[in-house]
Design goal:
alpha/beta
């Protein structure tokens, strides 16, 4: 019996080793337990902020912050913050009682944003380097998480949203601003967006199309328990429905 038990343990170890070897090494380690997204991904565009005046002339940031009900004391994570267009405007809106975490996966952008934060003396802003499959948000910390014109660049959406969820406070929302066009053309069709968020246990609470945004505004809340990675069903890009 002892020899048989030992043999079974060796077999189990061998099978586990096989499973590890068959994992896709090209994917980030934190994403390998999650399904792949069946969609192409846009390349990351420049983080330069030369168009800030143009965006302000359209009233973009004001519209988004008003829709998201950003006010004094709100805590916000600005994911994909780049050079800080939203970060600096959020910092002013939330005031000294609020906090803004500016996150990006580009070390160069983070460095430049840090210099801007120091130059403009934004004492209520923190800077954080994120990862492709994990925004690395502190748990139970944010009333709102902003992802403005960047979600279509997320290569591992299921892992990314799964890791993001615990960062929300109760009743917190994830705000997405994007464009209704294919994901390899710097946009994402709304139905596909809804499906990917729904697969990780989010529900849509608001959807608005605004000319000031050159696209749409979508707000999501987490509902129920966070699903296990193995139970997440990837979305079909053509239909915006879950399936394999």
């Amino acid at each position: 019996m002892i020899r048989r038990a030992a043999a079974l343990l060796l077999l189990a170890g061998a099978l586990a080793g096989c499973n590890r070897q068959t994992a896709d090494p090209s994917r980030p380690e934190g994403a390998r337990d999650f399904p792949k997204a069946f969609r192409p991904v846009s390349t990351v565009v420049s983080n330069e902020f030369s168009d800030e005046d143009q965006r302000d002339n359209l009233g973009e940031a004001k519209v988004v912050m008003d829709l998201a009900k950003i006010g004094s004391g709100t805590t916000v994570a600005d994911i994909g913050a780049g050079e800080g267009y939203y970060t600096v405007r959020l910092a002013e809106r939330v005031g000294t009682k609020g906090r803004v975490l500016a996150q990006d996966i580009d070390p160069g952008a983070i460095q430049r944003l840090g210099q801007r934060v120091e130059r403009e003396r934004l004492d209520n802003v923190s800077i954080k380097l994120g990862a492709v499959a994990d925004p690395k948000l502190p748990a139970n910390s944010f009333d709102r998480v902003f992802m403005v014109h960047m979600y279509h660049e997320v290569t591992e959406p299921y892992a990314f949203l799964w890791h993001l969820r615990p960062g929300l406070k109760p009743g917190g929302q994830v705000i997405v601003v994007d464009v209704d066009r294919p994901t390899d053309q710097h946009g994402i069709p709304p139905q596909l967006l809804f499906c990917e968020f729904g697969a990780v246990g989010f529900r849509l609470v608001e959807f608005v199309v605004k000319p000031e945004l050159n696209g749409y505004y979508a707000a999501f809340e987490a509902v129920g328990e966070r699903p296990a990675a193995k139970d997440i069903k990837p979305c079909n890009t053509a239909a915006g429905k879950t399936g394999t």
